[in-house]
Predict the structure.
Amino acid sequence: MAIIQASCPRCDTDRDLRPDQVRLVVYDDTPDRSYYGFFCYVCGENVSEPANVEVIKLLVVGGVRPEYVNIPSEARERHSGPVLNEDDLIAFGLALKNADPVERAKSDPRSGEPQ
Ligand SMILES: [Zn+2]
């Protein structure tokens, strides 16, 4: 079994880790978000560090099983304008209700009668 050597950036302790003690998260579409992590028993913290392509290759060769993350394209869209608030939702709901002839007929049964 391969041993992975890592240093804790918080307490500067060197650690020898088994592959199952290392978490590797790989973002397919945004590789700069990929990271690896492990638990440091000295400072009691979960450590995570960026993992570039070379680090990912080394960890995988060392036996670490990567967790692949695929972010839907909708989540990566850029949005502009004001944030939607409760009043906007109410206005939207009312607009939908007024736009639906079936709903309009339900609230005013005579609205469908010929004039
Ligand atoms: Zn530490």
User: Anything to note?
Assistant: The mean pLDDT is 88.
